[in-house]
Design goal:
By secondary structure, this protein is an alpha/beta fold. The protein contains seven helices and nine strands, in the order βαβαββαβαβαβαββα. Helices cover 41% and strands 18% of the residues. The longest helix has 26 residues.
Protein backbone atom coordinates (compact mmCIF):
# COMPACT_ATOMS: atom_id res chain seq x y z
CA UNK A 1 0.00 0.00 0.00
CA UNK A 2 1.39 3.38 -0.97
CA UNK A 3 2.14 5.71 1.93
CA UNK A 4 2.04 9.47 1.36
CA UNK A 5 3.43 11.97 3.84
CA UNK A 6 1.06 14.92 4.18
CA UNK A 7 0.78 15.94 0.54
CA UNK A 8 -2.04 15.30 -1.92
CA UNK A 9 -2.41 16.44 -5.53
CA UNK A 10 -2.57 19.99 -4.12
CA UNK A 11 0.95 19.53 -2.80
CA UNK A 12 0.54 21.43 0.51
CA UNK A 13 0.81 20.26 4.10
CA UNK A 14 -2.90 20.90 4.68
CA UNK A 15 -3.75 19.77 1.13
CA UNK A 16 -5.24 16.56 2.53
CA UNK A 17 -8.02 18.49 4.25
CA UNK A 18 -8.74 20.58 1.16
CA UNK A 19 -9.02 17.39 -0.86
CA UNK A 20 -11.38 15.77 1.64
CA UNK A 21 -13.63 18.83 1.65
CA UNK A 22 -14.09 18.41 -2.09
CA UNK A 23 -15.72 15.00 -1.70
CA UNK A 24 -19.45 14.56 -2.27
CA UNK A 25 -19.81 13.15 1.25
CA UNK A 26 -17.10 11.99 3.65
CA UNK A 27 -17.20 9.06 6.09
CA UNK A 28 -14.63 8.88 8.91
CA UNK A 29 -14.25 5.76 11.02
CA UNK A 30 -11.87 4.67 13.74
CA UNK A 31 -11.70 3.39 17.27
CA UNK A 32 -11.74 5.62 20.36
CA UNK A 33 -8.58 7.72 20.54
CA UNK A 34 -7.60 7.09 16.92
CA UNK A 35 -7.71 10.77 15.94
CA UNK A 36 -11.23 11.40 14.64
CA UNK A 37 -11.39 14.68 16.55
CA UNK A 38 -8.04 15.78 15.11
CA UNK A 39 -9.30 15.05 11.62
CA UNK A 40 -12.63 16.84 12.15
CA UNK A 41 -10.91 19.90 13.63
CA UNK A 42 -8.54 19.94 10.68
CA UNK A 43 -11.43 19.88 8.22
CA UNK A 44 -13.34 22.62 10.05
CA UNK A 45 -10.36 24.93 10.50
CA UNK A 46 -9.53 24.48 6.82
CA UNK A 47 -13.09 25.53 6.02
CA UNK A 48 -12.74 28.56 8.28
CA UNK A 49 -10.22 30.03 5.85
CA UNK A 50 -13.14 30.72 3.49
CA UNK A 51 -15.78 33.45 3.85
CA UNK A 52 -18.98 32.50 5.73
CA UNK A 53 -21.35 33.64 2.98
CA UNK A 54 -23.66 32.02 0.47
CA UNK A 55 -21.33 32.86 -2.38
CA UNK A 56 -19.57 30.46 -4.79
CA UNK A 57 -16.42 30.38 -2.65
CA UNK A 58 -18.21 30.50 0.69
CA UNK A 59 -18.31 27.80 3.37
CA UNK A 60 -20.96 27.25 6.04
CA UNK A 61 -21.45 24.57 8.68
CA UNK A 62 -24.26 22.73 10.43
CA UNK A 63 -22.94 20.94 13.51
CA UNK A 64 -24.60 17.83 14.95
CA UNK A 65 -22.80 17.27 18.25
CA UNK A 66 -24.11 14.31 20.34
CA UNK A 67 -20.98 14.40 22.51
CA UNK A 68 -21.57 18.12 23.32
CA UNK A 69 -17.85 18.80 23.50
CA UNK A 70 -15.79 18.77 20.31
CA UNK A 71 -17.91 21.00 18.09
CA UNK A 72 -19.19 23.43 20.73
CA UNK A 73 -16.32 25.96 20.35
CA UNK A 74 -17.36 26.53 16.73
CA UNK A 75 -20.94 27.43 17.62
CA UNK A 76 -20.34 31.21 17.57
CA UNK A 77 -18.32 31.48 14.36
CA UNK A 78 -20.31 33.16 11.55
CA UNK A 79 -19.86 30.06 9.37
CA UNK A 80 -22.15 28.15 11.74
CA UNK A 81 -25.75 28.25 10.51
CA UNK A 82 -26.94 25.53 12.88
CA UNK A 83 -25.81 23.69 16.01
CA UNK A 84 -27.59 20.94 17.94
CA UNK A 85 -26.59 18.59 20.74
CA UNK A 86 -29.89 17.40 22.26
CA UNK A 87 -31.77 14.47 20.64
CA UNK A 88 -34.81 16.40 19.42
CA UNK A 89 -32.69 19.39 18.40
CA UNK A 90 -30.46 17.14 16.31
CA UNK A 91 -33.43 15.70 14.45
CA UNK A 92 -34.74 19.23 13.91
CA UNK A 93 -31.35 20.37 12.61
CA UNK A 94 -31.23 17.50 10.11
CA UNK A 95 -34.70 18.53 8.95
CA UNK A 96 -33.41 22.08 8.56
CA UNK A 97 -30.58 20.77 6.39
CA UNK A 98 -33.14 18.96 4.24
CA UNK A 99 -35.23 22.13 4.03
CA UNK A 100 -32.13 24.00 2.85
CA UNK A 101 -31.59 21.41 0.14
CA UNK A 102 -35.20 21.74 -1.02
CA UNK A 103 -34.89 25.54 -1.05
CA UNK A 104 -31.73 25.35 -3.14
CA UNK A 105 -33.33 22.93 -5.60
CA UNK A 106 -36.21 25.36 -6.10
CA UNK A 107 -33.70 28.14 -6.85
CA UNK A 108 -31.85 25.86 -9.25
CA UNK A 109 -35.07 24.98 -11.08
CA UNK A 110 -35.98 28.65 -11.54
CA UNK A 111 -32.55 29.40 -12.98
CA UNK A 112 -32.15 26.20 -14.98
CA UNK A 113 -29.11 25.06 -12.98
CA UNK A 114 -27.98 21.47 -12.47
CA UNK A 115 -25.59 22.42 -9.65
CA UNK A 116 -26.11 25.07 -6.95
CA UNK A 117 -23.66 27.92 -7.47
CA UNK A 118 -23.47 29.20 -3.89
CA UNK A 119 -21.61 28.12 -0.78
CA UNK A 120 -20.81 24.61 0.33
CA UNK A 121 -22.69 23.68 3.49
CA UNK A 122 -21.02 20.93 5.52
CA UNK A 123 -23.27 18.95 7.86
CA UNK A 124 -20.82 17.55 10.40
CA UNK A 125 -21.98 14.66 12.60
CA UNK A 126 -19.39 14.00 15.29
CA UNK A 127 -20.59 10.51 16.33
CA UNK A 128 -23.16 8.77 14.19
CA UNK A 129 -23.57 5.84 16.60
CA UNK A 130 -24.77 8.18 19.37
CA UNK A 131 -27.21 9.82 16.98
CA UNK A 132 -28.59 6.49 15.79
CA UNK A 133 -28.94 5.28 19.37
CA UNK A 134 -30.97 8.28 20.52
CA UNK A 135 -33.48 8.45 17.66
CA UNK A 136 -32.73 6.04 14.83
CA UNK A 137 -36.27 5.99 13.41
CA UNK A 138 -36.27 9.75 12.76
CA UNK A 139 -32.56 10.16 12.01
CA UNK A 140 -31.86 7.42 9.47
CA UNK A 141 -34.34 8.56 6.76
CA UNK A 142 -33.08 12.14 7.03
CA UNK A 143 -29.40 11.20 6.73
CA UNK A 144 -30.19 8.85 3.89
CA UNK A 145 -32.12 11.53 2.01
CA UNK A 146 -29.45 14.20 2.56
CA UNK A 147 -26.78 11.79 1.34
CA UNK A 148 -28.83 11.02 -1.78
CA UNK A 149 -29.80 14.52 -2.89
CA UNK A 150 -27.41 16.89 -1.12
CA UNK A 151 -24.59 16.79 -3.67
CA UNK A 152 -26.18 18.94 -6.39
CA UNK A 153 -27.38 21.41 -3.77
CA UNK A 154 -23.90 21.78 -2.30
CA UNK A 155 -24.88 20.23 1.05
CA UNK A 156 -22.21 17.75 2.12
CA UNK A 157 -22.24 15.22 4.96
CA UNK A 158 -19.10 14.65 7.01
CA UNK A 159 -19.86 11.79 9.35
CA UNK A 160 -17.61 10.23 12.01
CA UNK A 161 -18.15 7.02 13.93
CA UNK A 162 -16.21 4.62 16.11
CA UNK A 163 -18.77 1.87 15.46
CA UNK A 164 -18.70 0.95 11.75
CA UNK A 165 -21.45 -1.67 11.96
CA UNK A 166 -24.26 -1.98 9.41
CA UNK A 167 -26.80 -1.00 12.05
CA UNK A 168 -24.94 2.32 12.45
CA UNK A 169 -24.02 2.88 8.79
CA UNK A 170 -26.67 1.08 6.72
CA UNK A 171 -25.65 0.18 3.18
CA UNK A 172 -28.24 2.51 1.66
CA UNK A 173 -26.49 5.42 3.42
CA UNK A 174 -22.87 4.30 3.06
CA UNK A 175 -23.06 3.92 -0.73
CA UNK A 176 -23.55 7.69 -1.02
CA UNK A 177 -20.19 8.51 0.63
CA UNK A 178 -17.55 8.77 -2.07
CA UNK A 179 -14.75 9.83 0.29
CA UNK A 180 -13.82 7.40 3.09
CA UNK A 181 -11.23 7.78 5.84
CA UNK A 182 -10.20 4.91 8.09
CA UNK A 183 -8.17 5.67 11.19
CA UNK A 184 -6.92 2.93 13.51
CA UNK A 185 -9.63 0.28 13.98
CA UNK A 186 -10.11 -2.38 16.63
CA UNK A 187 -9.76 -5.24 14.17
CA UNK A 188 -9.61 -6.22 10.51
CA UNK A 189 -13.38 -6.58 10.22
CA UNK A 190 -13.94 -2.97 11.33
CA UNK A 191 -11.39 -1.92 8.71
CA UNK A 192 -13.35 -3.80 6.04
CA UNK A 193 -16.61 -2.26 7.23
CA UNK A 194 -15.23 1.26 6.88
CA UNK A 195 -13.01 1.20 3.82
CA UNK A 196 -13.58 -2.17 2.17
CA UNK A 197 -10.23 -3.74 2.99
CA UNK A 198 -8.02 -4.69 5.90
CA UNK A 199 -5.11 -2.54 7.02
CA UNK A 200 -6.60 0.10 9.29
CA UNK A 201 -6.16 -2.28 12.24
CA UNK A 202 -2.39 -2.06 11.64
CA UNK A 203 -2.17 1.74 11.67
CA UNK A 204 -0.51 3.56 14.59
CA UNK A 205 -2.96 4.48 17.34
CA UNK A 206 -3.13 8.02 15.94
CA UNK A 207 -1.53 10.18 13.28
CA UNK A 208 -2.10 7.95 10.24
CA UNK A 209 -5.11 7.16 8.10
CA UNK A 210 -6.23 5.23 5.04
CA UNK A 211 -8.04 7.45 2.55
CA UNK A 212 -10.12 6.49 -0.46
CA UNK A 213 -11.34 8.92 -3.09
CA UNK A 214 -12.86 8.07 -6.50
CA UNK A 215 -10.24 10.39 -7.99
CA UNK A 216 -7.54 7.97 -6.82
CA UNK A 217 -9.47 4.77 -7.47
CA UNK A 218 -7.54 3.09 -4.67
CA UNK A 219 -6.64 3.46 -1.00
CA UNK A 220 -3.59 5.46 0.11
CA UNK A 221 -2.07 5.83 3.56
CA UNK A 222 -1.53 9.39 4.76
CA UNK A 223 -0.03 11.11 7.75
CA UNK A 224 -2.81 13.30 9.17
CA UNK A 225 -1.83 16.99 9.50
CA UNK A 226 -2.23 18.21 13.07
CA UNK A 227 -3.97 21.50 13.84
CA UNK A 228 -2.87 22.74 17.25
CA UNK A 229 -5.42 23.92 19.82
CA UNK A 230 -3.79 27.36 19.61
CA UNK A 231 -4.31 27.55 15.84
CA UNK A 232 -7.89 26.41 16.25
CA UNK A 233 -8.68 29.03 18.91
CA UNK A 234 -6.97 31.82 16.98
CA UNK A 235 -9.27 31.14 14.02
CA UNK A 236 -12.36 30.93 16.20
CA UNK A 237 -11.57 34.20 18.01
CA UNK A 238 -10.77 35.94 14.73
CA UNK A 239 -14.12 35.02 13.21
CA UNK A 240 -16.07 35.82 16.37
CA UNK A 241 -14.67 39.35 16.16
CA UNK A 242 -15.79 39.61 12.52
CA UNK A 243 -19.47 38.91 13.25
CA UNK A 244 -20.58 42.59 13.57
CA UNK A 245 -18.73 43.56 10.38
CA UNK A 246 -20.12 40.61 8.43
CA UNK A 247 -23.65 41.42 9.55
CA UNK A 248 -23.26 44.92 8.17
CA UNK A 249 -21.79 43.69 4.90
CA UNK A 250 -23.92 40.66 4.20
CA UNK A 251 -26.89 40.80 6.56
CA UNK A 252 -28.49 37.41 7.17
CA UNK A 253 -28.15 36.02 3.66
CA UNK A 254 -27.86 32.25 3.50
Amino acid sequence: MAKVKYTTPGGTVKGLYHHMLKQTHLLIGGTTGSGKSVLINGLITTGLHYLPTDEPNGVQFIFIDPKRVELLPYKKVPHCIGYASEPEEMVGMLRSAMDLIDKRYRKMAKRGLLQYDGSKVYVIIDELADLMTTNRRAVQPLIQRISQVGRAAGVILITATQCPLVKVIPTEIKVNYNGIVALRTRNAQDSRNIIGQTGAELLPMYGECLYYSPEFGRVFQYSVPYVTPEEKMLLIRYWEKQVPLLKRLFGKRR
